[in-house]
Design brief:
Blueprint (H helix, E strand, L loop, with lengths): L5 H10 L4 E4 L6 E4 L2 E4 L8 H10 L3 H10 L1 E6 L5 E9 L2 E9 L14 H5 L5 E6 L6 H15 L3 E6 L12 E6 L7 H8 L6 E4 L5 H12 L3 E6 L4 H10 L3 H14 E11 L5 E9 L2 H8 L6 H6 L9 H10 L5 H7 L3 H7 L1
Parallel strand pairs: 7-11, 7-12, 8-9, 8-10, 10-11
Antiparallel strand pairs: 1-2, 1-6, 2-3, 4-5, 5-6, 12-13
Helix pairs in contact: 6-7, 7-9, 8-9, 9-10, 12-13, 12-14, 13-14
Amino acid sequence: MKSSTLKGLLDIAIERGASDLHIVVGRHPILRIDGALTPIEDEEVISPGTAEAFIGETMTPEQKAHFLEQRQLDFTYAPGGTRFRVSAYFQQGTWTASLRLVPAEIRNVEQLNLPPILNEFAKLAQGFVLMVGPAGHGKSTTTAALLDEINRTRAAHIVTIEDPIEYLFTPGSGIISQREVGSDVRSFSDGLKTVLRQDPDVIMVGEMRDPESIAAALTAAETGHLVFSTLHTNSASQTVDRIIDSFPSGQQAQVIAQLATALVAIVSERLVPCIQGGRVPALEIMVTNSAIRNLIRERKTFSIDSIIQTGKEEGMMMLNNSLAELVKKGQISPENAILYSTDPVGMRKML
């Protein structure tokens, strides 16, 4: 059934269980379902005028002016109460956008099929917890689950700095203050400069985009706060290297010392297509212990994997072991286990 409106396309996306809707000139509207791109072939090919009309409909006049000046914009759009995270941009001179559905319900760790140890991170009083992995693989959803666990069970003040705000939290046992970059605060680093004056217990930084943000987040974690953030990295060892390498050589010794002290855990997540449909999470989990702290201090991050491999009793897990377990349970195919592994050669041997 053809739809001549953006609302109609969004309704189709919701009905088909899509995570994203893509508006691209010269193509049918495209959905991402269970990680795969699926054109809506009975819809008309998007023209430049249609793209501009559909994407313009999601923006306020101020957002449109900013978009035309900066040529890209991330924001939330909530028609009828259903929230979408919109990333609008220009490509080859035409308006283009990806609209990601943000579920209204914040699911907990159990509902997301995540290991129970993640709930332990929500019980911490201080430290630095990082969710990493490719875009669209559950980092924000997992972080929201942990924040909501804190929100429901602890009388804590949670401050989030997001671009844009995705999940909306219902007030719980404490206070939750959600600040959006662009409207409530100018940038992540600006928000972090003043966040400690707001009497927070828990801080969530939507993304650490520059050394200033990373330094401020580390300092907050080091000085008695629980800090959550995300990075687009593939593994624990790569994440540690990325953080250290973000700084000039003269500052790296201090960052290494802070990281070794404050880092509590790194969770790397992949959402893998299931044989029966849908997607299931596969994870690498690094829990910082004395051995890992020493490796960070000595800059021997290449040895972190061996500590994770032997740290099962502490809740650690290698991604390949997680993938192999999903294959064993009949949830994912061996081919997808290899495809989503960061060590496909090792994955083949394991299978």
